[in-house]
Design a protein that fits this description.
The complex is a heterodimer of chains A (about 290) and B (about 270).
Chain A (H helix, E strand, L loop, with lengths): L5 E10 L13 E9 L3 E5 L6 H7 L8 E6 L2 E2 L6 H7 E4 L12 H5 L1 H5 L4 H14 L15 H13 L5 E5 L7 H17 L3 E6 L2 H4 L4 E6 L2 E6 L1 H5 L2 H6 L6 H11 L11 H14 L1 H5 L1
Parallel strand pairs in A: 3-8, 3-9, 6-7, 7-8
Antiparallel strand pairs in A: 1-2, 1-4, 4-5, 9-10
Helix pairs in contact in A: 5-6, 6-7
Chain B lengths: L15 H4 L2 H17 L3 H18 L3 H5 L6 H14 L4 E5 L2 E4 H27 L2 H12 L9 H31 L9 H7 L1 H24 L18 H23 L1
Antiparallel strand pairs in B: 1-2
Helix pairs in contact in B: 2-6, 2-7, 2-11, 3-6, 3-11, 5-6, 7-8, 8-10
């Protein structure tokens, strides 16, 4: 029976890259079980080599599982006949903004996917306008992509994916090569898509601040899922995260160090405002003592 | 300095020339090039210059920007001119030792320079006013009748699109590599030609490696966007001929007629 709330269902996924030495012990993914729910914002966190990008490539059948299954909207990704249905449903944005734009002109690049799908020209026009509007790039539609900043290029890449009318957008470390401004642009765009367009987003990242903004976080290490929960649940486990080589958001880090040095405060606060307020209340309670 | 290359770069705009159907523009350019090589006297070049000037003005692209396209081939032009100037036999105008300049040589050199100049101006006007996608669409449409005899029209067009798309990216990359190698003490300016050619190797190898990596990334990104060749592909902008195209055709035909009559009459 198909669960209507689930878009992507991953069962016991195992994968290893073909090696000429046939060193089979080097499995990249070792039994992943994961469900992506419709409309959620899921972050997959992990340091380099944790298998998070390999996992991402399984979501739209670029890679096919060695063992286990990946179901996208009930379709098995191993079924070659529905390859393009799967890729249309799961759009993917990659790391390097320069290497994923096909056409020189912004709107022609956004039109690339619907052109491939054989959509009617008038409908392509609508989709391109919608997608550019969704990423706030309408005014650049006739610009040459070479002149744009990294963040803008990456927003075009997101628009190019949106023009396929996907059900899920996968961001495979799409902010890793951007400057802080570009990173914020992309995060704002993605959050807007998730909130306003009810788009399901899977964000592969190693930036804690980005993962902290998701609905749910999955932490990967050495090809396995080691933690799963809301950002607050995940980031209060500071020791466990540090053990697998990950940092926690700066706010959590600060609260955690304060707690360690004896202050009584909550450590599961993620935004700067929440954090500042907590420190303020705690310090005002003991303020008298500090003033003396 | 590498970014100055205007050849093959699109200059966005909405002028009459921009709006012409790419098929019209491509066929007109072919006719234009044929005309360039058929001109036999300076009257013909006058007509050609007037025609080219009208085209550049109506394209609303700054004149200097179009001229910049000639810069990269300047050395080539100078060499061609010198060879023609000194190595043509005929009525001697001036001689010194083994060097001699003939009347025919001067004429031929001037013709060669003008030909190359107009050739580059015309073709860069084509690429400046036609977006690469429109250009490749045009080529694909023009070649599609030959698909039956095995011409891979769509594949050729797609290759061109991608090549043009990556020109600025790879130029930028080349500059970065040159700077990086210079910072490590590489010397590109001194030594004879062989040494200088050897100095290019540390630039070319990283460039190739990175180009292959980019190609790989792009292939995956294209597959993710459901690319599967030219079958059943539709277009955002369907090509269609308008009255402007008819005027374009007439204009080029007038040029051809003028030049050919000047060849016969003068």
């Amino acid at each position: 029976m198909k669960n209507t709330d689930t878009v992507i269902e991953i069962k016991d996924l195992e994968f290893s890259y073909e090696d000429s030495d046939a060193n089979k012990t080097d499995a990249v993914l070792k039994g992943i079980n994961l469900c992506v729910k419709k409309g959620e914002f899921l972050a997959v966190l992990g340091h380099n080599g944790s298998g998070k990008s390999t996992l991402a490539k399984h979501l739209n059948a670029i890679l096919v599982p060695k063992n286990g299954t990946v179901l996208v909207d009930g379709i098995d990704t191993a079924d070659e006949n529905s390859l393009y249905d799967i890729r249309q449903k799961v759009g993917m944005v990659f790391q390097n903004p320069d290497n994923q734009l096909v056409a020189t002109i912004v709107e022609e690049d956004v039109a690339f996917a619907p052109e491939n799908l054989g959509v009617e020209p008038s409908e392509i026009r609508k989709r391109v306008d919608y997608a550019l509007d969704a990423v706030n790039m309408t005014e650049y539609k006739e610009h040459s992509s070479g002149m744009l900043s990294g963040g803008q290029k990456q927003r075009i890449a997101v628009a190019g994916v949106l023009a396929m009318k996907p059900e899920v957008v996968v961001m495979d470390e799409s902010t890793a090569m951007l400057d802080p401004v570009g990173r914020r642009e992309i995060m704002d765009t993605v959050k807007k898509l998730n909130r306003q367009e009810k788009m399901t987003v899977v964000m592969i990242t190693h930036f804690m601040e980005e993962a902290a903004q998701a609905d749910r976080v999955v932490v990967m290490d050495k090809g396995e899922i080691v933690m799963e929960g809301t950002p607050k649940e995940i980031f209060c486990q500071v020791e466990a995260l540090k053990k697998i080589g990950l940092d926690v958001p700066q706010t959590t880090e600060l609260l955690y160090s304060l707690k360690k040095s004896g202050f009584k405060l909550a450590t599961d606060l993620l935004t700067v405002e929440e954090c500042a307020k907590e420190i303020e209340t705690v310090f005002s309670k003991i303020g008298g003592a500090l003033c003396d | 300095m590498l970014k100055d290359i205007t050849l093959g770069q699109y200059f966005p705009g909405n002028s009459l020339i921009h709006r012409l159907d790419p098929r019209t523009k491509i066929l007109c350019i072919i006719l234009y090039i044929t005309v360039i090589f058929c001109v036999k006297n300076f009257w013909g070049y006058g007509v050609l210059a007037a025609f080219t000037a009208i085209c550049i003005i109506s394209s609303k692209i700054p004149f200097g920007y179009v001229i910049k396209g000639v810069k990269p081939i300047l050395i080539f032009v100078i060499f061609t001119a010198l060879f023609n100037l000194f190595l043509t036999n005929g009525r001697v105008l001036w001689s010194w030792g083994f060097l001699k300049i003939t009347y025919e040589g001067v004429r031929l050199a001037a013709f060669m320079v003008l030909r190359l100049f107009f050739l580059v101006l015309g073709t860069s006007l084509l690429t400046l006013t036609t977006s690469p996608i429109a250009l490749t669409d045009g080529i694909e449409k023009l070649l599609s009748p030959f698909k039956k005899i095995g011409v891979p029209a769509h594949e050729l067009a797609m290759m061109m699109t991608i090549a043009l798309r990556f020109v600025p990216t790879l130029l930028e990359e080349t500059e970065k590599i040159i700077k990086a190698q210079t910072a490590r003490g590489a010397d590109f300016e001194s030594g004879n030609i062989i040494n200088r050619a050897k100095a290019m190797i540390p630039i070319l190898i990283p460039l190739f490696v990175s180009a292959f990596r980019r190609a790989d990334d792009l292939a995956v990104a294209m597959e993710c966007r459901c690319y599967r060749g030219g079958e059943n592909r539709t277009r955002l902008k369907e090509l269609k001929m308008t009255t402007a195209d008819i005027w374009g055709w007439l204009f080029v035909t007038v040029l051809a007629v003028l030049v050919f009559t000047s060849n016969i009459l003068l």
